[in-house]
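User: Fold both of these, please.

Assistant: Here is the first one.
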Amino acid sequence: MSTHSIAGRNVFTGQPTRITIQDGLISRIEDLSDQHIHAAPAQPDRWLAPGFIDLQVNGYGGFDLNQDPLDVDTVISLTHRLLAAGTTTFLPTLITASEHRIVAALAAIARARQADPLVAHAIPFVHVEGPHIFPEDGPRGAHPREHVRPPDLAEFNRWQQSSHNLVGLVTLSPHWDHAPQYIAALAQQGVRVSIGHTHASPEQIHRAADAGATLSTHLGNGVSTMLPRHPNLLWAQLADDRLTATFIADGHHLPADTLRSMLRAKGIQRSVLVSDSVALAGMPPGNYTSPIGGAVELHPNGRLCMAGSDILAGSASSLADDLAWLLNNSICSLPDAFLMAASNPGRFVDGRGLLLPGAPADLLSFSFHPNTAAIHLHTVFSNGVECPTP
């Protein structure tokens, strides 16, 4: 029976805290503020927080989940790179592709989970973003048009058969004729459905929520560049309290004023941060060829676009980078940032992202100084196992 502890200021309460870890779980949380001064953490600038939970990861650090073919080693290496960046739970996100490629990638992720216990813990299930999206330029984003197709429950069942029921989240556009029936069938199986890459009407948005959709994928992106002032699909999703919205807070997908206003409209409790990171996240600026978007350009300011275009091709930031951008732009407080980057997404992943006895010991010790590009990680625990950090 392994027992160890970690100390710092609780990111939610601000109080000096010691967390005891036993057999992969948080066994005890002590508030040290009323104890003898020598019992308090020696480094008061160190914070304790749950690990980041990212519901949308296409790749990171040169490892690409949408490469063809996807192999087990790529999934394992990606997981360990993300752990080093503080992301202790993530959903591998497969974008629009042929059924053959989706099935093969799902099978590779399933094998990676079987091969490595940390991977099995870090990847609770897979997010399939597409292929049932709006086919036109703008809403489709960088997804390949030739593989966009309507929802098909028989195809979904084949996804699950290839991966031992590993698909737990599907992003689709609710404009398709039989979208409500498809959404209801997935929801009945416990699979989350998110609205995204769409030009759907407000009525279609609300019908999707009626059928069981519970999320909005990177709200404000994956939409037409021109929308009616009102009504439109953004207002409908912001207004529908049944939908939790995910946002990309990298400074490129949403300007600061836009994100600030959307968070106020949606409310912190119904908001989740996602990185939408691709393999080029963490790489130097330059021109690249990517499975997402083909020829792409990573600009010195971190903006990743399809070459010769302003169309974004995913994000080159991690959740740690996004959190720093939020704080440096005074968009939210540190506790609210961790609600959106850990606790709120944790509601969709077996109740993770909490600092409570009995919760998985997925923990960060970090420091942050204003006007720096990212938080500084000191310690990362995944399921009670200490992971290397940069």
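And the second sequence with its predicted structure:
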Amino acid sequence: MRIMWETSDAILTASKTAVKEFVSDGAGFSVHWGLYSLLGRGEWVMHSEHIPVQQYRKLMDSFNPINFNADDWISLIKEAGIKAFMITSKHHDGFCMFDTKLTDYKITNTPFGRDPIKELSNACHRHNVKLHFYYSLLDWYNPDYQVNWERYVEYYQGQIKELCSNYGKLGGILFDGWWPRYQLDKETEYFRPKGKWNLTQTYDLIHSLQPDALITNNHHILPLKGEDYQIFEIDMPGENTTGFNTTEIGDKPIATWITLGKGWSYIKENREFKTLDFLIERMKKCKEKNIFLWINSGPMPDGNLQLEEIEILKNLKHLP
């Protein structure tokens, strides 16, 4: 049986200059940071441990990353020679790390009270680092995802408009949470989209508001119209050691996305990290094949980057 999934008829794309610069920049630094960081058991903890929505929401009362300093983060990656930065604006748990007007489930309603993405945006622009957003289409919190699909699409597109309008010039947006080849089971059935994402409108909205922003979607299929590069999670392009990547490579620029730590977000009990030698070798392979490399970190709940990851970045700046 042929697998069918949503397509896109988007007309607009990122500017040729922006695409050329993205490929030339070669590497970017991303972070997975949110309420799940408090628990230190991975960004999927709400799902994997069956934590009820209202119980999980109570984490808001404890989220207060008092040691967060946007300039420290961006200065560090700038000194390492990295020219792009990406942060999880909203992960699958639905919690918003920015001051959205469309829900009260956001970081400005925690004891922290500030908008870290606004601060990171300002730091990126000061240091000439391109700002990218990760945004999860999948949402375990918003009830409309399950009961009113049209309203949910309006909600997520409204947030994309906010992200494109309120934080200055963007380098790009990476979507996640829609995997059309993923085989759902009883545990994951509630992930299923209840209709179309309306990607055509979403992609053209982004490119109309941010002509230089590159769009990618971590959907593990070939790029759709309106997507500016193809991304491979963990694997090098064309490989599928994870079991969920496509081995097909399209005609767009390509990127791979790896973690410095054991997982994507902060893991309290597991202190395994990639070695500097591993990272240097991966960067070398990517450079030889003209592949962009996203390097991911899991900041701690207090707002600090992990010392092991800081050390790796500091060593990168000493490379020839």
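The chain has one domain: 16-316.
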